[in-house]
Amino acid sequence: MRIDFHASPEPTLGVEWELALVDRRTRDLRNDATHLFARAKPRLPDPDKLHKELLRNTVEIVSGVCRTVGEAMTDLRRTLEVVIPAGDDLDVDLYGGGTHPFASWTVQQLSEGHRYEELISRTQWWGRQMLIWGVHVHVGMPDRERVMPVLSSLLNYHPHLQALSASSPIWSGIDTGYASNRALMFQQLPTAGLPFQFERWSEFEAFVSDELVTGVIEELSEVRWDVRPAPRIGTLENRICDGVPDLDDLSSLVALMHCLVVDLDTRAAAGETLPTMPPWHVQENKWRAARYGLDAIVITDADSNERLVTDDLADLLERLAPVADRLGCSEELAQVARIPERGASYQRQRAVAERTGGDLVAVVDSVVAELRAGLG
């Protein structure tokens, strides 16, 4: 089958930020997205920037098509400045973590919609377990023939993004020992997880054709890879990151993702064969970053060399600095280094739990407070 890729002439940027709804007193999840939409959407200049998701305990805030990280953050901030007061009316706060530390999946309600019902009908227990939230970043790609090479090379940096964004250490009241429990939960769904490493667009088309013919998917959007093409809007969509607690962390991570894609695409356009790693290295790196977060020792190349992820990150930020300068996000990219300095979200959550004797309500309080503090 043919899949048309509506190429973007510029490396545009779009951000999708999933946030949970928590009760202001109990700090448990609230299935009140419908009520929140009813209050918030009439106040928004563009109601389409607030989306529903699989469960009624979740809202997704999306930016428009932006040229810079700063523009995307301003766009998201404007929506938050409406949605948060609407939540105040309902005694609901927004929570930006990859998982909730103590909520039970058994009492969560499904959003209306045929595709959500079909997903749960097919995936059963694993689908109902999906109390997880993430961030998706789209970067415009100018040539479909470079999409798959850039995607495959981007996987070399999967553990860096996973470790920096990890925010899901506690599940059902238990510290899992993982920095990102979300990463390993989500890949249990069919077609989710790491993508196949195709060299040509035609190979991707053949894959999708096989998936459709055999009934694995009914439409292209059901390919839920950690990184995937979005042909209709001409982007490469990065879905690696856990839920992010505040605009500061978000802007840093978006800048890193923007710079990585643009750097790789520029090199591919110049005729360079982009570096990749065998799938077994990519798979191992994902597990190490999910397990150990910023303490992960990751595989850096096809020759099986290894390095502490934060050491490799420091060199990566230096190499990408000229790209950030061209894209107008030098300040945001430089701030990536602050995440290890202050601790990633999974580390901050664990610190609160330890300081309070395991008070998970206090953990939720801390994540909620970060979002509000970031708005000023």
Q: Which key terms come to mind for this protein?
A:
376 residues; alpha+beta; two-stranded antiparallel ribbon
Q: DSSP helix count? A: 15
Please report the total strand number as a whole number. 11
Cα-to-Cα separation, first versus last residue: 50 Å
- Backbone CA Rg: 20 Å
| Overall mean pLDDT | 96
- Share of β-strand residues: 5-15%
Structural class: alpha+beta
Uncertain segments of ≥5 residues (pLDDT<50)?
none
Compact summary:
With 376 residues, this protein is of the alpha+beta class. The chain has helices at 33-40, 69-89, 114-123, 125-128, 147-154, 158-165, 181-186, 201-213, 247-269, 279-292, 309-327, 330-334, 338-342, 345-355, 360-374; strands spanning 13-23, 50-52, 58-62, 92-95, 135-140, 170-171, 174-175, 227-230, 235-238, 297-299, 306-308.
What would you say this structure looks like, in words?
- By secondary structure, the chain is of the alpha+beta class.
- The chain has helices at residues 33-40, 69-89, 114-123, 125-128, 147-154, 158-165, 181-186, 201-213, 247-269, 279-292, 309-327, 330-334, 338-342, 345-355, 360-374, and strands at 13-23, 50-52, 58-62, 92-95, 135-140, 170-171, 174-175, 227-230, 235-238, 297-299, 306-308.
- A hairpin with a 6-residue loop joins β10 and β11.
- α1 (33-40) packs across α2 and α14 (345-355) crosses α15.
- The radius of gyration is 20 Å and the shape is globular.
- The N and C termini lie far apart (50 Å).
